Amino acid sequence: MKEVVLGLLGLGNIGGGVWDLIRTFGDEVETRTGIRLRVKKALVLDKRIHGGHEVPEEVLTTERADILEDPEIQIVCEFLGGEQPAASMMQRALENGKSVVTANKMALSLHFDELRAMAARTGAGLYYEASVGGAIPIINAIQSPLIANHIEQIMGIVNGTTNYILTRMAAEGAEYETILKDAQRLGLAEPNPAADVEGMDAAYKLSILGSLAFHSRIRMEDIYREGITRVTAEDISFGREMGYVLKLLAIGKDNGDSIEARVHPAFLPADHPLARVDGSLNAVYLYGHAFKDMMLEGRGAGDAPTASAIVGDIIQAAQNAVHPMPWLREDALPVADNWQSKYFIRMKAKDAPGVLAEVTGLLAGEGISVSAMMQKGAAPGGKATLIVITHIAPEKAVRRVVQALNPEICQVENVIRVEG
Ligand code: HSE
Fold first, then answer.
1. Which CATH number fits domain 138-298: 3.40.50.1760, 3.40.50.300, 3.40.50.2300, 3.30.360.10?
2. Is the separation of the CB atoms in 41 and 8 below 8 Å?
3. pLDDT by residue (tens digit) across 222-269?
4. Which of 8, 11, 36, 415 has the most CB atoms around its CB within 10 Å?
């Protein structure tokens, strides 16, 4: 039996979940691995509040040095969330030769280079399976069993809150604001939902996942990002009539000389594997030259699923004589801003002769071909809803068409990319 001494930075939902998993399942983990996990210290703000978890008084501390500077502590697990002080505390732990396990996608994405450099310098390990997709072992999969592949594409539903909202909007024909309020009431969306609904959370995750998948650093500021706040029940129901399901996707593509990295709502054909991933579930769909296509699906949040990935990382950190360090090219590929997609364009158009000709004329002028079209609520002289779905076209050309349309006769109400 080998004892491994842990320090926990934070004892909230995730920290508490890890504490509980070690307490209830630690003996079994020891039987399976020969490793006994002992939590020596857990950093809390106030010793009187520790989330109802049965933590002995002597384990609790309010001093970070009790963890970061204690030579007996071998692995530091960071559960503080947010950028700082989490990033600098992880940096200090690595500097002191302690391996770090974290689920903190924000600190990791923003400080990936410094943290990796420090881990490389001191030989400590940096493990972050839980930072993307919660319990789904996607980080390990990319770095180990799938390493003999050129991964060309990743497409993920990596934010449970927005997937829950979109799933309910689709099921109930309800508007975004109504479902958001209900999700907040149920504790499934934060009181300040911006990080989730504006796509920040998904972008942090894409930054980490894409950097590893394409071996080229993708920075947060390079990622195109659009959230779900402008999606309407009408978009979803018209999309469905035309055979599509709406999801918030984190998309990464390796185009050889550049990378695409974008987070935005997108329609997927109803028979795409990601289209049936509903509620708060997460899933990542990948394409690699040798494994072809694959999808991993599971719980992306929650204390127990996240703890599952964290304890897995702790065991790997304890077992590895040499900690793995992902290889990233030094000359990072540029992140493209000129990608192509198919587009769903929803317009309110005057129901009069020549309107359709104007729309299709502008599209034709940009070399954009129409793949499907639908008109609803037509009444001569009134306004009709017009939906156009294009074939693959450059995004910039589609934007030019939207700009050029005369709003007197045709107002573009939403443009949504169609992927898959
Ligand atoms: N806020 C995230 C989500 C969970 O809604 O999926 C943690 O990454």
1. 3.30.360.10
2. yes
3. 999 999 999 999 999 999 999 999 999 999 999 999 999 999 999 999
4. 8
Q: For position 351, what pLDDT does the model report? A: 86
The burial class, CB within 10 Å (0-12 / 13-18 / 19+), for 72 is exposed
3: exposed, middle or buried (Cβ count in 10 Å: 0-12, 13-18, 19+)? exposed
CA-282 nearest atom, ligand 1: 6
**Are the CB atoms for 239 and 246 separated by under 8 Å?**
yes
Q: Render 184-213 in DSSP notation, one character per residue.
A: HHTTSS-SS-HHHHTTHHHHHHHHHHHHHH
Determine the average pLDDT of the residues in 94-107. Answer: 98
CA distances, 1 to each of 33, 76, 315 (Å)? 9, 20, 13
Q: Which of 98, 205, 253, 342 is catalytic?
A: 205
- pTM exceeds cut of 0.85: yes
Residue 50 reports pLDDT greater than 90: no
pLDDT in tens, 67-77: 999 999 999 99
**What SS3 class is residue 279?**
coil
CATH code linked to domain 2-135: 3.40.50.720
Q: Which atom of ligand 1 is nearest to the CA of 161?
A: 5
pLDDT > 90 fraction of the chain, expressed in percent and rounded: 94
Task: Tell me which amino acid residue 362 is.
Answer: L
